[in-house]
Amino acid sequence: MSTISEVAKEAGVSVATVSRVINQNASVTPETQKRVNAAIAKLNYHPNVWGRSLRRQESRVLLIFVPNITNPYYANIISGIEDTARRNHYNTMVCVTNVDKERAKEYFDLLRCGSADGAILLDTTKNDKSVPRLAKNFPVVQCCEYCTDENISHVSIDNLEAAKQVVQYLVSLGHRRIGFAGAVNDFISTEQRETGYKKALEEAGIEFDSRYVAYADEDYNFLSGIRAVKELLCLKDRPSAIFCISDMIALGAIRAAGEMDLRVPEDLTIVGFDDVAYATMFKPMLTTVSQPGYSLGKTSCNMLIKQMGGAAPNHMFLEHKIILRDSSAANAVE
């Protein structure tokens, strides 16, 4: 195995210059960088990244906090984070918290003991007091979910506006009895999507009816989606359309409709949220709100790396869009 001294000799420079090239120090001229990189390639030299990290007091590890791994929504986000981390010579560690504060605290200890350099949080609840405390001492970026503390970076979409647009779309199809399938948790996206639903009804001149609201479990799982939507479909004057705050709930809604001999979209329009891969795997394919999952992950990782380099906290909202597929149609019920 080649050494850094052999690379320096081959390139005709000092060991310190080779080190500066490896560490991407701007003080090295382009011509010298070219010679050093050629020597590295010729000798197949591999820097001791672990030793260099120890000298810098870096771990080169980023933590990714997720509430669960059952919801496929998180897959694209994690891919965006991991690809961006690798391009910047960081490893990642996925920390599944189940929104358990004690479990999250154990992962936070990895930051405190120097085993990780920063964290991307996908599990932040809206009133979480531990995150502001953590962010005072360590680089932290919130992705998708975030608390209201403005001093902590976050990347998300405008969930309230997205929900309003869904309801406006349903109203444009002639639906007036519009149901809502939410979830029982403390995520800000959950609150904003329900708020957007109510605001859109108000703007359309439709009176809010609490009977048309049902709740799935906190993790938006498929079975709880079936249960919640069946509550709505058992109403005598059932909804002609249902807006579900996640695709997993929406897929459960389609199953619930089928079990009650209702056709989607002929008898019932269903709209989801997230645009997970499953949304197009079954018939009818799901009309949904598409979130840019990979870009959310990529953006949050870049933001974290900049923050570790001294950048100030930042806030960013990425674009969403409504994807029209088979599960929505003009109202034929009312």
UniProtKB/TrEMBL annotation:
InterPro entries: HTH_LacI, LacI/GalR-like_sensor, Lambda_DNA-bd_dom_sf, Peripla_BP_I. Pfam families: LacI (PF00356), Peripla_BP_3 (PF13377). SUPFAM superfamilies: lambda repressor-like DNA-binding domains (SSF47413), Periplasmic binding protein-like I (SSF53822). PROSITE patterns: HTH_LACI_1, HTH_LACI_2. GO terms for molecular function: DNA-binding transcription factor activity; transcription cis-regulatory region binding. Gene3D superfamilies: 3.40.50.2300, lambda repressor-like DNA-binding domains (1.10.260.40). Residues 2-56 form the HTH lacI-type domain. Keywords: DNA-binding, Transcription, Transcription regulation. PANTHER family: HTH-TYPE TRANSCRIPTIONAL REGULATOR GALS, LACI-RELATED TRANSCRIPTIONAL REPRESSOR. This is Transcriptional regulator, LacI family. It comes from Hydrogenoanaerobacterium saccharovorans.
